[in-house]
Every structure is written in C-alpha cells, then in structure tokens.
C-alpha cells in the first residue's frame, strides 16, 4: 500500500553497487506510488561509469512523430515532463546519492493499482520455480496465473501481470531450445526432406544464433493448402 514514506533518499547515502542503488530507489517509489526507469548516464574516458540517474517514468515528453506517418492506433500520452529523480555519483566503486528531487508534477497512482506499476512488477525466484514446475506439467499460462492469484490472495498481491508471465514463459522456451535440441530438430527435418522432396523448412534464429521459431511443411500439406487454403499454426504461449 502506498503511504507517506519517511525513509526518503538523502544526499550522501552510499550503496555498494547499481543493483542496491536501483532497488533502494525502486522500493521508495513503490511505497510512494510511482514507477521509475533508467535515464542518463555518464562515463569516464576509460569507459567506467561515473554518473547514473533514475527518473520517474513520466519524465520527459514523447518525441514528435513524422506527421506524414500514419499509425493504426494512437497511443495515449503518458509522460508529463516530471522532474522527480535520483542521481548517483560512482566513486571508488561506491554509489553515492548526489541529487534527489522528490516533487512530481502529476498525481500518483492509487494504492489499489500500485502493484501494476511497471518497475514494481517482478517474478521472484520462488514464483519462478512454481511457474516452471507447472509449465513442465503442461499447465496453460492462464491456469498458472489463476493459481498464483489464489495463492497470493488476489491479483494485486502476485507482483506481476499475466503479460509478464507470458513473456517469462516465452523466454524460457526460447532458452530451452538449446543448441543440442535445435540440432535434433534440424536432423529430423533433413531426414524428412530425404524421404519427401516436397518437404520444406526454414528456421529463425536470434542474435545468439539460437533457434527461436521454425516453419515447415510437407508435400501433403502443400496439396491440402492448394485445395482448401487452410493453415495450422501452433502457438505454445497459450
């Protein structure tokens, strides 16, 4: 629940690393009912970080778009130019608060939706373990999320959204498709191609050269499509 936070940041406070500094300010933001994000940073000539700033998520203004560009759906403006922020000066591997602005130029969110703030949503290790076990047993994402909601006593207590869960599972499945698994799939496709010259496949890989998706079709499927025009798509995220 959002409340008046007496433990406000003070100039000169020190933290051991970026994670501690970020977690401290994010905890303060959660208790005060606003969301944060990373903003500007400054590096020394040797590449080491010298200054890092975290800001209210409503900082800045959306960049003006090309008036000739047509968008299908206009997104609502969420930034208000808010100046609330905290800056850390990095000296001798310590993160030292060098600037803190607490005032916002917008209303803070209601306590009932505090858990929906982007920077407050997080899947911790305990919940991740539950998700992975249920996923391994074939539970659908909506079933997993419903169970977590019941376990936590309400969606506001889960700590993340259904969309966050979907993204977690999607990334997990991509990571599970390791090089050995991918090679097994490719070997099978090559075998199918050897016995069916009409068999076609094409993989999609990410920047780390890991397979993320693949398309395949055999001779019978091609003939069926030519006659009926039907396509079957397997989406493992639902």
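^ structure tokens above, recovered residues below v
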């Amino acid at each position: 629940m959002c409340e008046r936070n007496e433990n406000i940041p003070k100039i000169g406070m020190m933290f051991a690393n970026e994670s501690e500094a970020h977690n401290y300010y994010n905890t303060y933001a959660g208790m005060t009912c606003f969301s944060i994000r990373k903003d500007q940073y400054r590096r020394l000539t040797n590449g080491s970080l010298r200054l890092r700033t975290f800001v209210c998520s409503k900082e800045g203004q959306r960049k003006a778009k090309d008036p000739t560009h047509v968008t299908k759906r206009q997104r609502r403006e969420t930034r208000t130019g808010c100046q609330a922020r905290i800056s850390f000066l990095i000296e001798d591997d310590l993160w030292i608060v060098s600037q803190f602005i607490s005032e916002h130029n917008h209303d803070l969110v209601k306590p009932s939706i505090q858990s929906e703030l982007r920077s407050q949503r997080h899947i911790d290790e305990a919940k991740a373990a539950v998700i992975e076990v249920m996923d391994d047993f074939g539970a659908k994402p909506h079933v997993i999320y419903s169970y977590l909601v019941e376990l936590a006593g309400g969606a506001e207590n889960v700590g993340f959204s259904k969309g966050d869960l979907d993204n977690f599972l999607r990334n997990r499945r991509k990571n599970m498709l390791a090089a050995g698994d991918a090679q097994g799939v490719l070997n099978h496709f090559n075998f199918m191609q050897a016995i069916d010259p009409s068999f076609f496949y094409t993989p999609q890989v990410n920047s780390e050269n890991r397979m993320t998706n693949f398309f395949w079709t055999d001779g019978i499927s091609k003939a069926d499509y030519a006659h009926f025009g039907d396509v079957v798509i397997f989406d493992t995220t639902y």
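The mean pLDDT is 84.
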